[in-house]
Amino acid sequence: MATAQVTVRYYASARAAAGVTEERLDLASLAEPTLAALLSSLVSGHGESLARVLAAASYLVDGVVWHDRAATLPDGATIDVLPPFAGG
């Protein structure tokens, strides 16, 4: 049986803090398959610099704004981490 994975894509200061543009993570490695658990895992893997960016970031899940951090992430989802951008 295949493990469910999500793809996390980082932009701007999130990319700089994570040190990568994109990564794939197994949902099974999370305490629960939610955005909150995913963000906690990302901080554990990348450190406090990314934590500061994530605190101010917005998130898209499969291109849709995702406000409910406790909602279950869909298998195979793409999560875009969008830090605040200067300008318009």
Structural description of this entry:
Helix 2 (35-46) runs antiparallel to helix 3 (48-56). A five-stranded mixed sheet has the order 2-1-5-3-4. It is built from three helices and five strands; from the N terminus they run βαβααβββ. It has one domain: Roll (Ubiquitin-like (UB roll)), CATH 3.10.20.30. With 88 residues, the chain is an alpha+beta fold. It starts with a strand and ends in a 6-residue tail after the last strand.
Residue stretches low in confidence (pLDDT < 50, at least 5 long) are none
Portion of residues within helices: 25-40%
CATH uppermost class: Alpha Beta
Compute the CA-based radius of gyration. 12 Å
In brief:
With 88 residues, the protein is an alpha+beta fold. It has helices at 13-18, 35-46, 48-56, and strands at residues 5-10, 22-26, 58-61, 64-65, 78-82.
Output the keywords.
88 residues; globular; Ubiquitin-like (UB roll); 5-stranded mixed β-sheet; alpha+beta
Layout: helices, strands, pairs:
Blueprint: E1 5-10, H1 13-18, E2 22-26, H2 35-46, H3 48-56, E3 58-61, E4 64-65, E5 78-82
Parallel strand pairs: 1-5
Antiparallel strand pairs: 1-2, 3-4, 3-5
Helix pairs in contact: 2-3
